[in-house]
């Protein structure tokens, strides 16, 4: 459903609320930037015990802002309480990789978090719950979460690739001198990882094929392959390298934009969301994969009109194969609940 004309409060559960992205998200949500100026919000903040103080501090500052849209803010360390009545779940908190941790250890640690949260959402969230998973590995965490919430349609569990979409828009605008608002049809395919595929071949700039405009700016296919794709796909690592920590404000902006689009629509414009595959474009059904989507009336739809060249197919397959291997790894660890 769309909340735009609905003045009743919307309950939003934010996990990892004491962390950096949580801090960069909460105040904007309470100010109405996500659901609009007519929609009051109730915030339910979830942290692990060690993070509760930080979340309580954020809650105190939220009070001190005296936001007129903020009806309540509560802090929990129990997911079953935190997801009570949630209409929206922003699942930001996750277990970061620390020294000595293997990939399997990371998947396992996060698997435990996201299975518990999936169960809590299944048991306590509102019927119209919409979930975006931000915590990495975001796509597979969303898959685990959905698999533990058998009473909720799998379509309601999504993962964040909007940040990647924004990064791609910005790089294309920089390369062509275009305005971001003149670009349409750009899409991120696959996993929120270095294998993701930012696709310019279906994009237009001020109504003209982006490829043509790139060509006029001296940017050919080899620029796309050797500069544009790695720049976007490895931007997260570049930010970590330059900033000394992973992206925060841009990730919060991506998460807010993701929910805003899903709830209020994209006015026919394309965006990217990692959503459950319906088998479109040969992506195995059930994987949480980034696709081009449009949103309307509180729903998203995968766009089915994209031309996929051999070049694009190769990149999409590589990322989808990575999603399959993550899915197989968590399945073999017994972390997937009900098969759908
Ligand atoms: N998808 C994306 O585009 C994207 C972009 C940037 C970062 N990220 C990911 O977002 C996540 C959060 O990043 P951050 O910078 O806010 O990290 P952070 O370490 O500052 O904050 C994470 C918070 O989550 C909390 N947490 C851990 N386990 C939890 C659980 N089970 N329940 C509730 N809270 C829990 C921690 O206590 C911490 O306060 C990371 O996994 C990061 O890799 C994703
Ligand atoms: O946290 C990370 O590893 C990077 C993050 O997912 C990003 O894309 O900025």
From TrEMBL:
Enzyme class: oxidoreductase
Ranges of residues in domain Lactate/malate dehydrogenase C-terminal: 161-330
GO MF terms held by the record: L-malate dehydrogenase (NAD+) activity
Record has NAD as a keyword: yes
Short name of one Pfam family: Ldh_1_C
Active site: 192 (proton acceptor)
Lactate/malate dehydrogenase N-terminal domain mapped to chain residues: 11-153
Binding site for NAD(+): 16-22, 110, 117, 134-136
Keywords tagged on the record: NAD, Oxidoreductase, Tricarboxylic acid cycle
Residues annotated to bind substrate: 97, 103, 136, 167
Reactions mediated catalytically: (S)-malate + NAD(+) = oxaloacetate + NADH + H(+)
InterPro entries attached to this UniProt entry: L-lactate/malate_DH, Lactate/malate_DH_C, Lactate/malate_DH_N, Lactate_DH/Glyco_Ohase_4_C, Malate_DH_AS, Malate_DH_type2, NAD(P)-bd_dom_sf
Biological process per Gene Ontology, one example term: tricarboxylic acid cycle
Protein EC: 1.1.1.37
Record NCBIfam families: MalateDH-SF1 (TIGR01759), PRK05442.1 (NF003916)
PANTHER family in UniProt: MALATE DEHYDROGENASE (PTHR23382)
Family: Belongs to the LDH/MDH superfamily. MDH type 2 family.
Role this protein plays: Catalyzes the reversible oxidation of malate to oxaloacetate.
Protein name per its UniProtKB record: Malate dehydrogenase
Upper classification of the organism: Bacteria, Bacillati, Actinomycetota, Actinomycetes, Micrococcales
